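TICKET: design request
STATUS: open
ATTACHED STRUCTURE:
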């Protein structure tokens, strides 16, 4: 399983390395966190990634989720709004031999240049499902996004069943850092 293959301690501060294998979220700087392994596993499972799938992640953060998706053979695109995190993630991912396509900026409008995607995962909590992300789904594609208040979100999965129709599922509750941007929180 990808979670066992990726050394999580490399994605957290050296001061927290000894806690990297606890099932908890940990700070990664810029007021952000690396998601709890349980949460990464849950989102990854809901994405139903197959080798060669084109997957867009909003919220690169430490780069850990991007490493997992790359390890699973996905063609990964990931957007991060914090410059420091963007550079740090790029460096560690390259050191591990992964070359996902990373972008610095607001991901709430997706990354239209490479759309459509077979999977889109938002790793920050959104006030509503960002509509551009739905538009950037391939037929058969899955969008996994936590939606709710800044305190608690429900995991929403939207599957594009055909050109015109979507299926929406509401799953477990989680607590993510906020998705900040044009189609997110202020
Ligand atoms: N997937 C990350 C989780 C990081 S936490 C990991 O594996 O470590 C969520 C990240 O989303 C934070 O780094 C935060 O800065 C970023 N984020 C929040 N709003 C964003 C936006 N509009 N566009 C891109 N990134 C955003």
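STATUS: resolved
RESOLUTION: sequence designed for all positions
ATTACHED SEQUENCE:
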């Amino acid at each position: 399983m990808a979670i066992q293959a990726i050394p999580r301690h490399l994605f957290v501060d050296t001061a927290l390395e000894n806690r990297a294998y606890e099932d908890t979220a940990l700070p990664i700087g810029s007021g952000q966190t690396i998601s709890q392994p349980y949460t990464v596993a849950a989102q990854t499972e809901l994405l139903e990634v197959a080798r060669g799938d084109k997957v867009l992640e909003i919220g690169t953060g430490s780069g850990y989720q991007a490493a997992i998706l790359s390890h699973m053979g996905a063609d990964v695109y990931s957007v991060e709004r914090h410059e420091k995190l963007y550079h740090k993630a790029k460096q560690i991912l390259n050191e591990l031999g992964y070359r996902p396509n990373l972008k610095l900026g607001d991901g709430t409008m997706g990354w239209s240049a490479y759309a459509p995607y077979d999977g889109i995962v938002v790793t920050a909590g959104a006030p509503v499902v960002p509509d551009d992300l739905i538009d950037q789904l391939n037929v058969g594609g899955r969008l996994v996004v936590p939606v709710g208040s800044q305190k608690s979100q429900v995991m929403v999965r939207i599957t594009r069943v055909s050109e015109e129709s979507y299926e929406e599922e509401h799953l477990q509750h989680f607590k993510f850092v906020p998705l900040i941007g044009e189609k997110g929180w202020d």
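CLOSING REMARK: The first helix runs from residue 2 to 5. The mean pLDDT is 97.
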